[in-house]
Amino acid sequence: MQFELPQIGTVVGGHTRVHDDYQGGVNSIIRLDAQYPLESLQGLEEFSHVQVVWKMHLARPEDVELHARSPRGNPRWPATGTFVHRNHRRPDQVGISQPRLLRVQGRDVHVTDLDAVEGTPVLVLAPWFPVMGPQGTVHVPDWVPEMTPRYWAPASERP
Question: What is the pTM assigned to this prediction?
Fold first, then answer.
């Protein structure tokens, strides 16, 4: 079964290239398409964070890998299946982020710490409700924090 999701907006500014790490401290705008009335954003500015679902538009269908592999190609980390990874090698090629909301100006939703790049199609924009986040104790395998200690490091520190 296939689903079609409409693009509701576009990422303007922010990151210009895809990077594995150093995603932090970059401001960008989620520009809502003109077909959506301004009142569709009314009240959003009262939230500290938003949830954004976006299409990895720079990925190609041939990038999908449906087999177990070590994260970032590092043999120190165990081979894990496609649905254990959070990158463009997944069949949906969709990203999910929870950036901090800075302000809303017209159809422009200003955010920081959005790990999408300039020109990214936005499929979903919603306020972040903490109660709808993970319930109970969150745990991950040891390789996850080993792999991501600089994920949210400031982009200005990127070597």
Answer: 0.92
